[in-house]
Amino acid sequence: MEYSWLVKMDRELHYACIDSYGNLTAYESNGTCRKAAYVTALYYTMSSLTSIGFGNVAANSDNEKIFTCVMMLIGSLLYATIFGNVTTIFTQMYSATARYHEMLSSIREFMRLHGMPNQLNERIMDYVVSTWAMTKGIDATKVLNYCPKDMRADICVHMNRSVFNEHPAFRLASDGCLRALAVHFHKNHSAPGDMLYHCGESLDMLCFIVSGSLEVIQDDQVLAILSANDVFGDDFWSKNRDSVGQSAANVRALTYCNIHQIRRAHLLEVLEFYHPFSISFARNMVLTYNLRHRVNALNLFIDS
């Protein structure tokens, strides 16, 4: 033990307290030798815990050792704080991606569990992936619920500005009327091949196409191709207010489509309250295709 670090330290600092076997043999009256041993042991322990390798004692005096121990402790806390925050930042950066893959995994497991056909599987995955690409996993309804009523109306007007600006039926609407309409609009995203209406379904919505293309099919014949700024549904605001019509044709998406929709009951409620606007709306709103009207089979044969 003659060459141990305790013996070497004792000789360098001229403490006659440690024999050749590393044992404390004598103490000064003020306990300096005992203090030096404990401080050195603390230094050795802190150095071993906070660094890589053997904790050699580089400091000489007790004050240097205590100062070094304090700095090692502060450095450890700083490292923990910095790297902890960096880990949190990276976790938050990739949280959306993690939720996306978790959602895809759940959908695949659901389709496998229920034995969905391959064609339906492809449609589901296409819709989910394209919807996520547009929304980035953000639930607009949840965000709107965080906001007060006035702010929610402002957000809805902004989100539906493409409909209000492009269609002349809304040009004479007051600010209050637009806000009342906007909160009832909702967006619908459709992938190619999705059916928006089947023949015989109730026409309880008025649909405004913002982007994309759709086809109207009756008896396996394509009657019309609808695109951006077209409107389809039923003219329930001018007639047939008391009865909900049935669709006489199928409406299928040809491309990825963004459609803004408002329910029949909500639109009639706003029109009834804002009577001057209802007159302007009935005069200026023209449906690109009225799904309630069935095209005569003879006309289809002549056109074909």
Task: From the structure above, extract its key features.
alpha+beta; elongated; K_chnl_volt-dep_EAG/ELK/ERG; Jelly Rolls; potassium transport; 304 residues
Inertia-based shape: elongated
User: CATH class of the largest domain, please?
Assistant: Mainly Beta
List SSEs in N-to-C order. HHHHHHHHHEEEEEEEEHHEH
Distance between the termini: 107 Å
What portion of residues is helical? 40-55%
Evaluate the radius of gyration.
38 Å
Number of structurally distinct domains: 2
- Output the number of helix runs: 12
Poorly predicted regions are 26-31
Task: Give the strand line-up of the largest sheet.
Answer: 1-8-3-6-9
Class computed from helices, strands and strand pairing: alpha+beta
Task: Please state roughly what percent of the residues sit in beta strands, choosing from under 5%, 5-15%, 15-25%, 25-35%, 35-45% or over 45%.
Answer: 5-15%
Give the biggest beta sheet.
5 strands, mixed
Number of strands: 9
CATH A-level architecture of the largest domain: Sandwich
What can you see in these coordinates?
Residues 169-271 form the Cyclic nucleotide-binding domain. Pfam families: cNMP_binding, Ion_trans_2. The protein has 304 residues and is an alpha+beta fold. It has helices at residues 5-13, 32-50, 62-93, 95-113, 118-135, 140-146, 149-159, 161-166, 175-182, 264-273, 275-284, 297-303; strands at residues 185-190, 195-197, 205-211, 214-218, 221-226, 231-233, 250-253, 257-263, 289-290. It has a five-stranded mixed β-sheet with strand order 1-8-3-6-9. The protein starts with a helix and ends with a helix. The chain contains twelve helices and nine strands. It has two domains: 5-91, no CATH class; 139-303, Jelly Rolls (Sandwich). Residues 26-31 have low confidence and may be disordered. The longest helix is centred in the N-terminal third of the chain and has 32 residues, at 62-93. A hairpin with a 2-residue loop joins strand 4 (214-218) and strand 5. It is 51% helix and 14% strand.
